[in-house]
Specification:
Shape: globular
Number of strands: 7
Oligomer: single chain
CATH topology: Rossmann fold
Order of helices and strands: EHHHHHEHEEHEHEHE
Mean pLDDT: 93
Distance between the termini: 17 Å
Strand order of the largest sheet: 4-3-2-1-5-6-7
CATH superfamily: HAD superfamily/HAD-like
Strand content: 15-25%
Length: 230
């Protein structure tokens, strides 16, 4: 069996999942539109400038969950999932890629910085049963309790993705050496650590920084929006 890992934003989906969720919350009246959009623009600028603070960003996204009862959040999440399902044409290249690996019998997992509450919408949509994501904290650590606005441990971002993946594999009683081949698909300048960790790194519609890295290292580059998944 081989191991296939997939980044989410701008890889399996051609947009940012956190931003899509934030936009939904604004339309639902659950977040202050001006304040949330302004803060998100600040994070976007720091990301491009190379001064992005992932802990601050994920406290911001977790903070959007914290004021609301879980029953309300679940209702909103289902409505958001319905909106995602309506964008099936945009998601079809990612679906084809996942199906390619599932058809080979590979163990598939989405590895994303997006928090688990939001990322689960996409994991279910793609039919991927394994998800490694940033973990939003709940009150007293109770699974279905209200969110606190904090995260548990480090965000699943940059080199921390390796630690998250290794912990996930350990929970399955497995390790990297148990697989014939490992691969990871990503678009992001922040993902070279996990791309280096696998046997087959694949840059998917990469940003300029990752494209340069992929070209220098001879990594495969795929245009998932126009090329066949295989």
């Amino acid at each position: 069996m081989d191991l296939a890992l997939f980044d989410l934003d701008h890889t399996l989906v051609p947009f940012d999942s956190n931003t899509a969720w934030m936009d939904f919350l604004i339309r639902a009246g659950a977040a202050d539109a001006d304040a949330a959009a302004s803060q998100n623009r600040i994070f976007a600028r720091t990301y491009m400038a190379g001064t992005f603070d992932p802990h601050a960003y994920h406290r911001f996204t977790a903070g959007l969950l914290a004021p609301h009862p879980r029953t309300t959040l679940e209702q909103w999440r289902q409505a958001f999932a319905d909106e995602v399902a309506a964008r099936s044409a945009e998601l079809s290249p990612g679906s084809a890629l996942v199906e390619h690996h599932r058809g080979r019998g590979d163990l598939c997992c989405i590895v994303t910085a997006t928090n688990r509450f939001v990322a689960q919408v996409f994991a279910r949509r793609f039919g991927v049963g394994h998800l490694v994501a940033t973990e939003p904290a709940t009150r007293d650590g109770v699974t279905d309790a209200m969110f606190t606005g904090e995260i548990i441990g480090d965000p699943c971002f940059g080199d921390c993705k390796i630690q998250h993946v290794e912990r996930w594999l350990s929970s399955l009683g497995r390790g990297r050496s148990d697989f014939g081949r490992t691969c990871f698909y990503s678009d992001s300048r922040n993902d070279p650590p996990l791309l280096e960790w696998v046997d087959e790194p694949v840059a998917v519609n990469p940003d300029a920084v990752l494209r340069a890295e992929a070209l220098a290292r001879g990594w495969r580059i795929v245009d998932l929006r126009s090329a066949p998944a295989g």
